[in-house]
Amino acid sequence: MRKTLPPRKLAIYGGMLLGFVMLESPMIMIANKIDPMIMGAPFLFVWNLGWWAFLTGLFLLAYLTNWGSSSVPAPQRNR
Amino acid sequence: MTGSIFIIAAFMIIPLLVGVVSARKSQGTSEDFFVQGRAMGSVAVFFTVAATWWSAFAFLGSNATFYTSGPVYLTALAWNLLFGFMYYWVGKRVWFLGKRFNYLTPSDLMGDFYNSEALRILVVLITLVFTVPYLQIQLTGGAYLIEVASGGAIPFWLAALLFYFIIIVYVWIGGIRAIAWTDVIYGALLFFGMMYAGYYISQQVGGPAALFAQLQQSSPDHLTMPGPNGNMGYSMWFSLFVIVAIGAFMGPQIWLRMYSVKSGRLFNLMPFLLGLAAFAYFGSVLTGYTGVLLEPGLENADQILPVMLMNYAPYLLASLIMAAGAAAAMSTANSQIHAVSTVVTMDIYQRYVNRKASQARIVTIGRLSLVAFSLAAYILALTVPGLLVTIGIAALAGTAQLIVPTIGAITWRRAHPMAAFWGLLTGVLCVLMLTYGPTVSNPLGLHAGIWGLLLNGGLFVGLSLVLKRKDHEVVERFALARQEYDAEYHPERLEGASQPVGEAATAR
Lengths: 79, 508
Fold this sequence. Notes:
The complex is a heterodimer.
Chain A: H1 7-24, H2 43-64
Chain B: H1 2-23, H2 30-35, H3 42-53, H4 56-59, H5 61-69, H6 76-89, H7 91-101, H8 106-114, H9 117-149, H10 156-202, H11 208-218, H12 234-249, H13 252-259, H14 265-277, H15 281-294, H16 304-312, H17 315-353, H18 359-383, H19 388-400, H20 403-411, H21 417-436, H22 448-466, H23 472-489, H24 502-506
Helix pairs in contact in B: 1-10, 1-17, 3-10, 3-17, 5-15, 6-12, 6-14, 7-23, 8-9, 9-10, 9-17, 9-18, 9-19, 9-21, 10-15, 10-17, 10-18, 11-15, 12-19, 13-17, 16-17, 17-18, 19-21, 19-22, 21-22
């Protein structure tokens, strides 16, 4: 079995880990404040919205790159 | 009033029509009734997973939590992403093994890999015992909405009865195909309803920016943790993230939606789609917070959305959005009823009562189980009160414990049946003791489910490292299946495996 992740897969999973850490580790308490309000929204909300957008975009990238695997995406077919 | 009754009637009749149409495609086999012959397409899979996953807990409970407890429910953005990630990473492996070894229920996989009858029975008990309370909250939420939308003309008990009657009829005739088809309608209605309700209601105070500015002046505690009551801080933020995502993911209704999928490629896309859908929670932010300004002191917080709609939106729009809320509840309830009936039929009836049951007999038992579990949930809804989110989290903490032996089964050849059994049992007992024990409080403020998972996981890993499996044939059979999975979807993991097989290979 291969022991290391391919670089593309490593980048995808590393990015996901970063996103989840920013949203769910105790670091969230640093963002737990109202000011500065950004576009009328409290900072905590903007922080969450930003990292949610980052992770959602990364999931799209993961899909487009077959989650970093070397196999080529296959067309839908009945198996 | 006539208009809202019309909307409620349409909401009731449409799924019946869908059930009749879908029944025409039915093949009369248990595999078709329970997992649509493992041939569910991409649109149906997305909507039925999303609508099943999003329930009254999300539609009503989210508004109520922003209203009473501040921003802690914002962690829902992350738990949706985690749910999506698990659907890819765990779900795709479960799907592959389910197709390979013909599984229909969670205990099929666990019982087969761990080769343990005791574990199989424990998994069945956990899926049944912890799914019924979650089913109860769907019924309660849906009935609230129908009662309010009808202006009280349809009382709670009758609304709940109608709600389940409709579900039983269309699931009876159409099985999981009818559920998936109705979930396409319900899913679209539910996401539209959450977002538009928030947008519309927030306009009553001048829009989102004005809403936050006013809230900062009048009730700033609502905008940061630990919220106005001081009890929804980081511990709860993290607990909700883990328990809700894993607990819902391990529910039998989601397991069936892993086994039903036609193509493995769809699992790759689901995290993005499920993550994107989480944007609808901003509708709940706006509704809950506008409620703080305009309707403070509401006795039952779960009713904040219907109350706001009835007081501030045109009657027809209010009824339509409440129908969307009822759709959220019904789309989860139908899947749960169907899933528990599958568990009872396949794991109890066919395995222990009548091993030689015909396909027709199995489907009939499945249908009768629908009625029995609906009745149990109906009685609970009428007799056991409680906030939707509170009941929901307790139920999810129980099913969440199944993730430990599941990950063991799909990834680890050393995973031992005794370790899985005792870990699972300890985890569930911990959840029950910390949730219902009169004198015990949760250490560090973390939810009982988190402590259950820590004990469960620790015992599982520790005992698996100490004990050795003797059923080498089973271990090797699964090792080979996992190798085939890697060869097909992750060929880079296999040294010297230059040629992927199956779906991946066909693209070359």
